[in-house]
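User: I'll paste a sequence; please echo it back and then give the predicted structure.

Assistant: Echoing your sequence first, then the prediction.
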Amino acid sequence: MPNLPSLSEDAGLYDVFRLDPALYQHWLRFSDLALRRRSELSPVEREMLSLFVSRLNGAAYTAAAGEAALELAGGAPARVARLVADDDEREVGERLRPIFRLARKLAADPASVSRADTKAVLDQGWTEETLHQVVLVVCRAAFVDRLAIASGLVPPDAATSQRLAHLRLRHGFTPMVESLAREAGGSGGAA
């Protein structure tokens, strides 16, 4: 049962977003940019990173959504489960290893992130732009994980998770932004 009295038992993140449509329109636009813009990281790698953080955070709702999205993108959720359990990040190649080490530290103990962590990413040939995107993806996942956990959201069934993941991977968050803009009574340009 959700922790917010206005939410139904089968509430999802969209129902939480409806509590403040003007605010969450901006959040969803940010999410699209963080997850879908052109990048050195493949869509599968970005989905892996997002699911990795949700698993580290113990966020069942967002992890279920992330598993469905990763599968549809062509990745293996079981690989991420092993990655979470492996402090050495052996599930990814040498080039991705410092990215996942940085993500682990940023998710679990942000104050422990050091110049050595970011240098390790850059030393593997990643650009500073990609390093910044990794930080954004981790921060985005941490925010939405905490929002789902605090709201008491329960993961939907597998078929619903797959349907929602398919829509997100195909269209991004634009349909939700448009719907929230209608609910907010405008284009959502000003908060």
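Residues 187-191 have pLDDT under 50 and may be disordered. DSSP finds ten helices and no strands in the chain.
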